[in-house]
Amino acid sequence: FIMIGAIIGDIIGSRFEFGATPEEGFELFTPDCSYTDDTICTIAIADAVMNHRNYQEALHDWCRRYPDPMGGYGSRFYEWIQADQPHPMNSYGNGSAMRVSPIGWLFDDWEQVIDEAKKSAEVSHNHPEGIKGAQCVAETICWLRLMRFSKTDVERKVHKFFGYEIPSMRDILKIGAEGHFDGTCQETVPMALRCFMDANDFEETIRLAVLCDGDTDTKACIAGAIAEAYYQVPETMIEKAISYLPDDMLGILSQFYETIQSGCRQKK
User: Fold this and answer.
1) CA 185 to chain CA mean position, Å
2) Per residue in 19-78, pLDDT tens?
3) What are the Cα distances from residue 225, in Å, to 38, 47, 83, 90, 140?
4) N or C: which end of the chain has fewer CB within 10 A?
5) Residue 97 near residue 133 (C-beta atoms within 8 A)
């Protein structure tokens, strides 16, 4: 499977978002883990692109199909889901960035990636920071997947094109220890990028993201999405993650994998 990196991060991080503080060597998958809104919305974006659905329609469909995921939805986004004719919320919450990873895989042209990331964000998160966060994550995946950029290149490009200063791990851990919950794109995206930068493999990326505490599922979701474009994802982690998912989500994952394997990228 491809696109599983984001979902693995979400599931592993899920039990810590409102639970106990993660400690070194924590168990990756337990019965207390589950997919959250991060996975639901990621599946929705993939469905929209592959099946030529409007981003708003697909998000509405999937979020209403799963109205009560672990951890729930953010209060403003929940109102958006409930509205029959929802309007963008001028939000810069990290929801736009955590769901965007399929766009980094399904489009090969970097300008299309930027454009589609904007479209996927602005249906709900139309604040410039909400759009920028989504574009940064999708574009980073595209850079790693197609151009095989080094981590140094990624950090330089992220600063040049998106203006993000990627904080040190020490600073991130200090923020987490102070109990701050990183709920915005401008906080979570650079943090997730640092976890990827400092890790040596996919699993370590996820572990670092979770150990940073705060919005653990979303940080690990974004970090996992980026790391998947750079590292091999362990088969055991893939098998564990898919065991948590219902059949309709697995159907979209299978379609996604087949689309990538066939080389039939999107021309939207």
Assistant:
1) 11
2) 888 999 999 999 999 999 999 999 999 999 999 999 999 999 999 999 999 999 999 999
3) 11, 17, 29, 25, 10
4) C
5) yes
